[in-house]
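INFO  loader      accepted 1 record
INFO  loader      residues=400
INFO  predictor   begin
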Amino acid sequence: MSTRNLRVAVVGGGIIGAATARQLALSDADVTLFEKEDRLAAHQTGHNSGVVHAGLYYTPGSLKAQLCRRGVELLQTFTTEKGLPYDECGKVVVALDESELGRLDAIFSRATANGVPGIRRIGADEITAIEPHAVGIAALHSPHTAIIDFVAVTRALADDVVAAGGTVRTGTAVTSIREAGEQVVVDVPGDQPAFDLVITCAGLQSDRLAHTSGGTHDPRIVPFLGDYLLLEPDAAAKVRGLIYPVPDPRYPFLGVHLTRRIDGEVMVGPNAFLSPGREAYRGGRGSWRDLRDAVAWPGFWRFAAHNLPAAGRELRTASSTRRFVADAAAYMPGLTVDDVRPGPRGIRAQAMNADGGLEDDFVVTGHGRVVHLRNAPSPGATSSMAIAEYLVDRALERIA
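INFO  predictor   done
INFO  writer      dumping C-alpha cells
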C-alpha cells in the first residue's frame, strides 16, 4: 500500500524512530517525528557502544537474526552515501578454557546459519595474530563486525526526513495517543494534532506510552544500567578491535568486554544492574516512580529469584573497580586499575514479562491505527533501518 498523502506520526527520536520517519518520508508520507528531549539520540542511541553487530548470537529465523543482517547492509550503504565513518575493526569472541568450547561452537553454528560473512573458528595463535595482547584457547573471528557513530547516523537520517518535506519536533513530549474514528490524536503540550497512523519507538518509555494509548502493561520496561571504564591511551593502543567473552547462559547479560570506539577510545564493560531510574545517567538523579514501577512488577521478583548468581556477579563489578578490571584482564593480561578511568553509562530498556522472563527478540504490537515497538535491545541500533522497514510494513497492514 502506498503511503502517499498519509499523515503519520513517529514518536521517539532515537536511531530507530529517525530511521522509521525517514522510511516514511522517502515514501511520500507527510511525517512528523516527535522527540521529548531538545536533541535527537539523547538516550539509548547516544549511550551505547557504537558496535555494528554482524549477527553471531541470534536464533536463526528470529526477527533479530533477520533484521540484523538486513540492517548491516542498509547501514553500510547509508554511511557510504553520507560520508560517515564505518570501521570494520573486527571482533573476537574468546573462550578462556575448555568449559566454554561447546558454547563457542553453538555460536559458530548460529552465525553460520545467519549468514555472517567471514566468520571463522580460530586457535590461540590466531587470536594473538589478530589481537596481540589477548589470550584464550580458541575464539570466533568476525572480521566484518564494525564500529560507527550512531548519533551522527541518527542526525543524518533526520536530515533526510526534513529534506523530503517531513517535520522533526524536538522538545515535544507526547503524553498520550488516542484513536478518534479513522484518525489518531497525539497529545503534546499545547497541541493535539491528528494523524492517519502513529508508530511509537519510545525506548525507555515504550511501555508507558503503549499503555496510555490502550495497550497492555505486559511487557514492562525494567531499566538496567551499564557502566563502562575507558582505557588510558597506552592501554587503549593495545586493543585493535573488539574482544568479547563467550556468553554464559546462566547469566542474562553478556559480561565485561573490550570495545574500540570510532573516536579511538576503548571501553571496558559494561556491568549490568537495576537502574535507579530510566534516565539516571552518570551524575543524574534517580526516579522514585521508575524504581517503584520496576520493583512493584511481579516479573521483576521472579526474574531476580532466578538470577541471584548473576546479581552477585554484577554487584561485585559495580562496587569494585578492581574486580571490574580483573574480569577484563582475564582476556587482556596485565590490565590494572591504573590503566582505566571512569567512562560513560548506558541504560538498557529491557522488556520483561510478568513471569520474569526477558523478551529476547524485538517485540512489535499494535491496535487500530497505532503500532508500538515494545522491545529493541541490541542489535537494535544495528538493525534500525531494517526495523524501520518492518514497522512501516506492519503499520500499513493495519489500514489496508
